[in-house]
Amino acid sequence: MVKKILISSIMIISLISCGNKSQQNDSAKNNTENKVIENGSWNIDTQQSDAINEDIKTIFSNATKELLGVKRELMLYLGNQIDEGINYAFICRSEILAPSALPYYEIIICNVSDQNETSITKIEKIIESSQSSVGGIICTSSDEAKINTSKSKESEDIIKIFENAIKNAGDVKYNHELYVANQVVKGINYYFIASDETSIKLLTINNFMDSSEIIKTENIL
Prior knowledge:
The protein is of the alpha+beta class. Helix content is 26%, strand content 42%. It has helices at residues 2-30, 54-64, 142-145, 153-166; strands at 42-48, 70-82, 86-96, 104-112, 118-128, 137-139, 175-185, 187-195, 200-208, 211-219. It is globular, with a radius of gyration of 23 Å.
């Protein structure tokens, strides 16, 4: 009888131990740098180019290494999503390797399957320079785009324009991520990659005579 009780006790302790171990593993997974949430939902976790985790940079590099003919500079990591493996989303500044090629910004989504195979599921232009610079859209250089890490006076001025415009955006809290283009119109249109808690957007902000307002919002992710 004592032997049966002892065996039962050992089994109960073993089950409790396994349960605790499983909880610890789940907790560790949820606390990793590249955490993900439920299937289909994007975990928005933006990182500037110089702060992107090396493992995530490798995923981007492996997925795009066969895409020849275009120079792509990784600018921003957007976040991840569970979908037949894990999807990782990035913003690049790109330029076709040809004379007089015009720069553009694009979103690239890479998938890492359960078998650890890396592929591209989406490439889409977000904004590109116009053929004519007179009144057309002009994409920024990579240095100009990095307003969050630049210490220049120009970057500070651009951030002020963004912050003045979003004051009237209601309850939505936008964060400036990249300044990607401008266009001379009635005043100047400034184009920003911006994030909120659940999405990534392209915001067009018009600045005219020291007054700034959001005139267009486009979903990117």
